[in-house]
Specification:
Elements (H helix, E strand, L loop, with lengths): L1 H16 L6 H4 L7 E2 L5 E2 L9 E5 L2 E2 L10 H8 L16 E4 L2 E10 L6 H7 L7 E11 L3 E11 L1 E6 L2 E6 L10 E2 L3 E3 L2 E11 L5 E7 L10 E3 L1
Antiparallel strand pairs: 1-6, 2-15, 3-6, 3-7, 4-7, 5-6, 7-13, 7-15, 8-11, 8-12, 8-14, 9-10, 9-13
């Protein structure tokens, strides 16, 4: 009987501490001001067009004493590593990815703000603070072709962004997060689903990003869904 009770308690403890647990906010209350657990299967961009639903990998340790090293060549070397290219499968909440001999967990979250607070995500989940690389993934469902749009993003500090594995935008240098700080060339979002991936790197200091699609006049694109 004692052995059975021990196995039961171990099982309960494992379920509470396992990264697959759905209630990340309950386990890490410091996230609550910034994130919520997605409930609806699909959501729209917010009223200004920003995508608030992302699946975030726990941060990758990458010490940097300064952000001045974030030139294009450095960013490509450390962010464009092929992680989101051939054979890439969109991660589900709780999935694990091995990076630098460490198993890291993906978490799907809805941001309460238009910008995704990566520093708060790392500190809140007790997975890091400074000198980190973040990976982000989201999937959008476009009901009909949308022509002449641009992917517009801002990040702190440097970042790279891809649509369906194709590079769309690179933001280099030691920068603060400013909305629409950079924009891709004009593209057509074809009817159907598209995978948007990004990687953000920072040394000392805060880290966050925002992303949306804008039309030829700089107005937000709103007519698509963001999937869970």
């Amino acid at each position: 009987m004692k052995a059975i009770l021990t196995i039961f308690l171990v099982s309960i403890f494992s379920s509470l501490t396992d990264g697959d647990s759905p209630d990340l906010i309950e386990r890490y209350p410091a996230l609550e001001p910034y994130f919520s657990i997605p409930v609806e299967t699909a959501v729209c961009p917010d009223e200004r067009g920003f995508i608030r639903r992302w699946t975030l990998l726990e941060p990758i340790d990458h010490p940097n004493r300064t952000n001045t090293v974030f030139v294009d060549s450095y960013i490509r070397e450390h962010l464009d590593t092929g992680w989101n290219k051939d054979g890439f499968e969109v991660p589900e909440d709780g999935d694990r990815t091995r990076v630098k001999d460490t198993d890291l967990i993906w978490h799907t979250l809805d941001s309460k703000l238009f910008n995704i607070k990566l520093y708060r995500y790392a500190v809140g989940t007790e997975t890091g603070r400074y000198g980190l690389i973040f990976r982000a993934v989201t999937v959008i469902d476009v009901p009909e072709d949308i022509e002449n749009v641009r992917l517009a993003a801002g990040s702190n500090s440097a970042s790279m962004w891809w649509i369906d594995g194709e590079e769309a935008l690179i933001l280099s240098g030691d920068r603060r997060m400013v909305m629409d700080d950079g924009a891709s060339r004009r593209i057509t979002l074809k009817k159907g689903r598209h995978v948007i991936t990004g990687a953000v790197i920072n040394g000392p200091g805060m880290s966050d990003f925002c992303l949306r699609f804008i039309d030829m006049n700089g107005n937000p694109v709103l007519n698509y869904k963001i999937l869970k």
